[in-house]
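Postdoc handover notes: sequence design on the structure in folder B. Input tokens:
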């Protein structure tokens, strides 16, 4: 198949032919579990564009498509009323012998993403606001509810370089070359430092959040959504890579 004709001037943007080639090649690669890097290199050979330019364009379009889809706001801040309700519900349930997880599952209506959001907020509150937690406990006890302030296991602070190295080692155990490369790039960045981590932090959150949500699902649901999870993870790895400083 002969190469695409519009190799000369790329300032006019992507043609329909190039767009079709990019998406069809990417979808085929993802269905076979192949790395997207090979896709970008293949499109570069066919069009004369640079692989990095193709990669950036691809993930820009992925983000654009995602923003067009209706989705629940994952990072909407809790109101104080919501925090009060959450803490009262959990502390009351634990005082009655229930586990935190079963309580959060109940109040989230079986929504695993929402349950994870509640769980993270609950853990954050009991670690960072002990006076507030004790105030809620005192209020509940005054109302005749049997409960007590939860104990907090304070973890020792891990060195950032040590944490990034551990992340890379864990990635290697998965055997996923794309994930290993992203983690190694993250480790190098942490060792060298960076002036602005805003974009990188957002990209890292996009990478981490689906993993946390997937881990919170029942095993049977994990099996049913595995292909979708892998595709999402692959795309988010690329977004993370695109946020990394470009090498000279």
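Designed sequence:
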């Amino acid at each position: 198949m002969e190469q695409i004709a519009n190799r000369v001037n790329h300032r006019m943007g992507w043609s329909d032919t190039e767009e079709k080639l990019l998406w069809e090649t990417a979808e085929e690669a993802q269905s076979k579990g192949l790395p997207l890097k090979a896709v970008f290199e293949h499109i570069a050979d066919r069009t004369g564009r640079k692989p990095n330019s193709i990669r950036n364009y691809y993930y820009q379009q992925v983000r654009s498509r995602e923003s067009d889809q209706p989705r629940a706001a994952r990072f909407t801040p809790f109101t104080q009323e919501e925090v009060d309700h959450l803490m009262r519900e959990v502390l009351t349930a634990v005082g009655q012998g229930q586990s935190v997880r079963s309580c959060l599952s109940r109040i989230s209506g079986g929504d695993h993403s929402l349950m994870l959001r509640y769980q993270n907020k609950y853990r954050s509150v009991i670690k960072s606001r002990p006076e507030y937690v004790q105030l809620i406990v005192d209020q509940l006890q005054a109302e005749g509810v049997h409960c007590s302030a939860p104990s907090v296991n304070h973890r020792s602070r891990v060195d950032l370089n040590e944490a990034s190295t551990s992340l890379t080692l864990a990635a290697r155990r998965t055997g996923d070359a794309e994930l290993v490369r992203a983690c190694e790039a993250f480790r190098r960045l942490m060792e060298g430092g960076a002036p602005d981590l805003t974009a990188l932090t957002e990209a890292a959150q996009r990478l981490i959040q689906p993993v946390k949500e997937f881990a919170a699902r029942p095993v049977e649901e994990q099996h049913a959504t595995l292909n979708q999870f892998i595709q999402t993870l692959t795309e988010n790895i690329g977004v993370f890579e695109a946020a990394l400083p470009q090498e000279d």
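Context for whoever picks this up: The first helix runs from residue 16 to 31. Don't rerun without checking with the PI first.
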